[in-house]
Amino acid sequence: MSVLIVGSTALDSIKTPGADKPRLLGGSASHAAVAASFFAPVRLVGVVGEDFPRRYLALYRRRGIDLAGLQIVPGKTFHWAGEYEVNMNNRRTLKTELGVFESFTPVLPPAWRDTPFVLLANIAPGLQHHVLDQMRRPAFVVADTMDLWLNIALPELLKLLRRVDGFVLNESEARQLTGEDNLIRAAQKIHRLGPKTVIVKKGEHGAILSALGGLFISPAYPLSRVVDPTGAGDSFVGAMMGYLSAAKGPVQAHLRRAMIYGTVVASYCCEGFGLQTTTRLTRAAIEKRARALEKLTAF
Length: 299
Ligand code: AMP
Known about the structure:
By secondary structure, the chain is α/β, with parallel strands linked by helices. The chain has helices at about 30-35, 55-60, 125-135, 145-150, 155-160, 170-180, 185-195, 230-245, 255-270, 285-295, and strands at about 5, 10-15, 20-25, 40-50, 65-75, 80-85, 90-95, 115-120, 140-145, 165-170, 195-200, 205-210, 215-220. A 9-stranded mixed beta sheet has the order 5-4-1-8-9-10-11-12-13, sandwiched between helices.
């Protein structure tokens, strides 16, 4: 089954202590779509400007991503610039230029309205609503977000939480949203806001799932060298949704394994700039690292 992904389709300028990489292919939807494409057919909804390099469109196509929902319009592509500190955990946003996202109205091709799995990747909650408004009874909808929307669009985000099955956020966002320092209590509070499935990401310390089947914890895959963590969270949720849409039977039965695949693709994402590593991955490499993670956590 297919997964529909809406989110940012961006040009990312990334500075790390060792390198400066301008205008790489980035955006929450790009990372999520490439990650999901190793598991299931992907339908991408987004917008780019006329400055968007053709070779980036070719990258999506090489991963088999359906671009019928990607608008190419006059104007500049969304541009985000960020800088990492030496330990690579702390990131500062240097620039957010919305460009064509400022006046974006997502329009789904009619045939896409019945897509069973929907990932509302990080983008303004208003746009996430707009996509959901066009869907006909999707089987499983997951939303992602960021601190910016908690700060400037909280009412819309809270309304969105009542419409989704799953919500993915990082630990600082979970604390900000709930006012709870304890992440287990924070997850319980988020359930009361709507989503039955809550995943709290803790960066290099893994992720916690709180769902109908109870709690599950996934470690992060231990990396000895992180090149660029940009998009790791988006790759995590993209791979997870790709895996879930390809699995048979009830979604709840596959959530744990889906998280492990999310963890694996996110780890590969951190090993290169932007989408460099993930676009070159193979399903075999993903399976190999998933087995390694299984061995690392068995006792
Ligand atoms: P992550 O590292 O998982 O937090 O995701 C980083 C990605 O989020 C980058 O590729 C950015 O292009 C994208 N991004 C940054 N700011 C925003 C924003 N305000 N709205 C949507 N996407 C954003």
